[in-house]
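TL;DR need structure tokens for one chain.
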Amino acid sequence: MKYKYDIIRSQRNSMSVSISGENRITVRCSWSMPAEKIEKFLDAKAEWIDRIIMRNAKRLAANDDVIEFRKIYFDGEQLPLVVGDCNKVTSEAVYVKSFDDIEKLYIDTCSAEFTGAVYKAAEVAKLYPNSVSVKKYRGRWGCCDAKNNLVFNYLLFMLPPPVRHYVIIHELCHTLCHNHSPAFWKLVSDYEPDYKNLKKQLTAFDFLTSLY
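>> reply
TL;DR here they are.
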């Protein structure tokens, strides 16, 4: 296997491989799975792995300015990220006093309108959350707990509105189905018929969750 990869062992019978948006390869398998079988498994998946890594590499190259903090996404558009003497968002650029101010700026600028959009979508779908809040998350875009409290990642404000709306619908549907069963995805499709395409678009922004 020409790529480096991590192994996560657990009490499971099957073996799987996943590739993150940053091209981190992870193999999940049983405690007793020998290294040679893992290598054979990955060799059989080599064509698929190469395709995903190439696709991710092209996407990451297109976001080089964002990764290097020269630009930042806002509402799906890349804007210059300017460090200066104020915190504000304009149509020309995002201004921050320091990179540490990005989270507060986005939450202060967007959370009220976003929360209103969540409750509006909830009213349309008749799927009512107990509460809605916005915070910083590592590795996830949103969460619905057992009491139907919804928490969203503030990085959603960087995404295109249709993708952001898909995440809203996704979490609202969890207020009725706390899993990812076929019934859950049927419910999602009822309120967002294009969810498969939007879900794929969302994956392209996964790198943001480990960047900020």
